[in-house]
Every structure is written in structure tokens, then in C-alpha cells.
Write a structure and sequence with these properties.
The chain has 168 residues and is an alpha+beta fold. The protein is built from six helices and five strands; from the N terminus they run H-E-H-E-E-H-E-E-H-H-H. The structure holds iron/sulfur cluster (SF4) (2 copies).
Length: 168
């Protein structure tokens, strides 16, 4: 009988306590996001999918030197070089296996031409493994660019001063 009484008292004490916790959070700003309708802005140093950069005239920056592939700890970059009609090197084939990539950014740091960089895009999930082999056509930035010029400026400053490297 005592046990039953204790149980009833416990219920009447703890129920208001639980309701108080609920009420406390009822009018607070939610900490979750209504994804994918709302997206959290990524930090400037966030590294998502790769892009291949162009010069202002639209020509490709990548000269297929292979330094990014040499720096890659995951060995996920594959390329085949070729020469254009002016005798300039370019990457005829440039592929990245995004399933192996660890998004470390070493390829971006190693590139002498500032040809490859990791942007903020992260929504490339898929149920097909083949879709994670990204080719040059998937990565080349459009020309003419519609990008925010401040992003380009930030990247150039980061490369010139190494500020991002020190923070990382
Ligand atoms: S992306 Fe840069 S480092 Fe990689 S092959 Fe092209 S030019 Fe060389
Ligand atoms: S981000 Fe890192 S792991 Fe991914 S391709 Fe570049 S160097 Fe390789």
C-alpha cells in the first residue's frame, strides 16, 4: 500500500516538473533548421565539392602537372595530360573519386596554378556509386563566371598570405 502511495505522490510531483521543462523550451528559438528549405550558411573555411578554375578568357587553368594528385593522401585524383593546338598542356581527363576524398584541401594547397579549389557545395549524396566519380566537365566552373567576386578575392588573399593555413 505504501508503495502505491509513494508512486502516486511521485507522479504528482514529477509531472509538473516535466511540464515545466516542456514549457521552458516551448517559447525558445528552435535550434534545428527546416532543412532543406532553410540552410545553414557554411563557414568561409568549409571545404565541400571541388571546382576547376578558368582564366578570365575562359581557358582552363589546370596544366595537368599532377602535383595535386601527388599531394592527395587518399590517392583519389586521376588525370591524363594532353596538348592543345598552341602546344599548351591541359588535362584531357581529370577525375576525382569523391568516395575516397577526405576533403582535406591538400590538392588546393599544392596547385601552382590555383586551378582547383574546394567550394561550399555539399549536397551531392546519391545511391549510385558511379556518380561519385566526378569528371572535368562536372568540376569546371562556368564561363563567364557568375560567382561572387569577393569569394575569388578571399581565395587569392588566402593563397598570398597563408592566413587560412594558420587558422587551419
Ligand atoms: S589542378 Fe593544379 S596541381 Fe592539379 S594537375 Fe591541375 S594544375 Fe596541377
Ligand atoms: S581534398 Fe584531399 S583527399 Fe580530396 S582530392 Fe583533395 S587532396 Fe585528395
Amino acid at each position: 500500500m505504501n508503495e502505491v502511495l509513494r508512486g502516486i505522490i511521485r507522479t504528482f510531483v514529477r509531472m509538473p516538473q516535466g511540464m515545466a521543462v516542456t514549457l521552458k523550451h516551448l517559447f525558445k528559438k528552435p535550434v534545428t533548421l527546416d532543412y532543406p528549405r532553410k540552410k545553414k550558411p557554411m563557414q568561409p573555411r568549409f571545404m565541400g565539392r571541388h571546382y576547376l578554375e578558368r582564366y578570365d578568357d575562359g581557358s582552363e587553368r589546370c596544366v595537368s602537372c599532377g602535383l595535386c594528385a601527388a599531394a592527395c593522401p587518399s590517392d583519389c585524383i586521376y588525370m591524363e595530360p594532353a596538348e592543345n593546338e598552341k602546344g599548351e598542356r591541359y588535362a584531357e581527363v581529370f577525375e576525382i573519386n569523391l568516395l575516397r576524398c577526405i576533403y582535406c584541401g591538400f590538392c588546393e594547397e599544392a596547385c601552382p596554378e590555383e586551378a582547383i579549389f574546394l567550394g561550399h557545395f555539399y549536397e551531392f549524396s546519391n545511391d549510385n556509386r558511379d556518380s561519385f566519380i566526378w569528371t572535368k566537365q562536372d568540376m569546371l566552373v562556368p564561363h563567364p563566371r557568375k560567382d561572387n567576386p569577393f569569394k575569388t578575392l578571399y581565395r587569392r588573399i588566402r593563397h598570398a598570405t597563408g592566413i587560412g593555413d594558420k587558422v587551419r
